Amino acid sequence: MKRRFAAMAAAGAAAALVLTGCAGGGGGDNGDQPWTVAEDVTIEGSATFEAMQSAGQIVIGVKEDQPGLGYLDAATGERTGFDVDIARWMAAELGFGEDQIEFKAIPSANREQELVNGNIDMYVGTYSITDSRKEQIDFAGPYAITGQGLLVAADNDSINGPDDLAGTNVCSATGSTPIQNIRENYPEAKIQEFDTYSQCVAKIEDGSADAVTTDALILLGYAAQSPDTLKTVGDTFSEEIYGIGVPKGDDAFRDFLNTALEEGGETWTAIWDANLGETGVEGEQPAVDRY
Amino acid sequence: MGVITDNWDLWVDATVGTLQIFFFGLIIALVLGFIVGAMRVSPIPIARWVGTAYVNLVRNTPLTLMFFVFAFAVPVVFEIRDLRLLGILAIGLYTATYVAETLRSGINTVPVGQAEAARAVGMSFTQVMGHIVLPQAARSVIPPMMSVIIAFLKNTTVAAGFSIMNLGSIRAYLSERGENAMVVLLWVALVFVVMVFALSGVQRYLEKKWRVAR
C-alpha cells in the first residue's frame, strides 16, 4: 500500500509538471566552475554568433527531465546535469556568463525544427549525431559516447539484456530511436510510449512496465537517483554519439565549438566527475569529428 | 510523397490506431452520452443530479488530465494495465459529456406542450421520449452532434502521449528517422481532412434522410 501511494504521489507530481508547463528561471551557483567566461570573443563570419551578440544573450535548448544530464529542479529553479554544464561551458567560451544564458526545454522530437527556425542558438541534450539529422542541422563535437541500455526495478532478476525482453513491457519516449529499435529488432516485446522518461520510470514503479530503454547515460542518471528501487542491466547494444546541435551551414560557429571542446580536456573531465562521477563509471572524452 | 511511401508500416499502424480509438471511443461516448442525456431530463431527481454532476465534473477537465489520470492513477488503484483500453475509456468518458449535452439541447427544441399532450393521452415517460420527443430531437441534433464527433476524432491525437500509437505519434517517429517535422505534420493534417470529409458526408446523408417539412 505504501508503494502504491508513492506511485500515486509520483504520478501526481508528474501531472503537476505537465500541467504547469514547467516555467523555469535561471539559477545555478556561481561558485567553483571548472570554466571561466571568455572576453572579447570574435568569430569571423558566423551569423549565429552575431545574432547572439546583438541580442546580448545565448539561447540554449536543453532537456529538463533527465537527472544527472539535463534536469530542472522545480522547487529551486536550478538546472543541473552533465549536458547543462557542457552548455554552460560552451556559453562561457563564447563569452556569455550564466546570467546571459536563456535555457529552453525542448522535447526530442522538436529539436531540429527549433534549430531550423532559429528559436535556439544551439542544443545540448543527449542529441545523437546521425546522418539524417545532418541534412537539417549541423553537429559540433561529439562530446560523449554511450549506447542503448536497460533500466529495470532493483528486484528484477529476469531481464539481463535485450534478449530477455520477449513478452515484457518495454517503455521509452514516443517514437525515440531506442523504442523504434526495439519495435524492429525485438518484436516480441510489448511497447509502451510516453512523452518523457520520467513517466516510464513511474510506470516501472507502479508495476506496469518491466524495463525502460534508452541511452545508458540517461538511465544511469535515474539509477543514481533511486539506487534502492532501480538498476541498469546488461551491456549497451547500440552506439549513440552525442553532439551539440547548431544551425546548419554556420561552419565558423561549429569550428569554434569544436576547438573549445578539443582544448578543454580537463574542463570536460571536471564536468563529468561533478555530474556522473557518483555512478562509478569512468568518463572518457571522445575525439572531435570535424566533418 | 516519400514521407509516406518510405514509412508505409508506420502510417498504416498509426491510422489503424486512430480509427481504433475513434471507433471504440465513439461507442462508449454515444451509449454513455445517451444515458446521461436521458438522465438529465428524467423526472427522477437523483438521476438528474447524478447526470448534472458527471457532466459538470468531466466536461470542465482538460482532456490531457483525463488521459493522465487514466494512464497513471487508474492502473495503480484498479489494476488495469492495458494502456490502449485505458486511453479509450478516458476519451470515451470525456466525449460522453458533450454528447449528453448536445442531445439535451435537441430534446429542448421539442415544445414542452407536445410532451404534455402525450402524457395527457396516457403515454409513459419512455413512450413520450421514444415516440414523440427523440425522433424530433434527433433531427435537430445532427449538425451539432457531428461537430462533437469531428472534434472527438481530432482529440484522439492526445492519446499519442499516453502510449497509444496513432496519427499524433507520427511526427515523433519520423523526426527520429530524419524527416522534416513540418512536412510530416502537413501530411497528418491531410489525412485528417480526408477523414473529416467522410464524416461530413455521413452528416449530409443523415440530414437528407431524416428531413421533414416543417
Explain what this protein looks like in three dimensions.
The longest helix of chain A has 19 residues, at 2-20. Chain A folds into two domains: 42-145 and 242-279, D-Maltodextrin-Binding Protein, domain 2; 148-233, D-Maltodextrin-Binding Protein, domain 2 (3-Layer(aba) Sandwich). Chain A has a five-stranded mixed β-sheet with strand order 10-9-11-8-12, with helices on both faces. With 291 residues, chain A is of the alpha/beta class. Chain A is globular. Chain A has helices at residues 2-20, 47-55, 82-93, 111-116, 131-134, 177-185, 197-205, 216-225, 251-263, 265-276, and strands at 58-62, 65-66, 70-72, 79-80, 101-105, 122-123, 137-146, 148-153, 169-173, 190-194, 211-215, 230-233, 240-247. Chain B is mainly α and 214 residues long. Chain B has one domain (2-209): Orthogonal Bundle (MetI-like fold). Chain B is flat and about 70 Å long. The A-B interface holds A 4, 7-8, 11-12, 14-15, 18-19, 108-113, 130-133, 135-136, 171, 173-177, 180, 191-195, 199, 202-203, 206, 208 and B 62, 64-65, 68-69, 71-73, 75-77, 81, 83, 160-163, 165, 169-182.
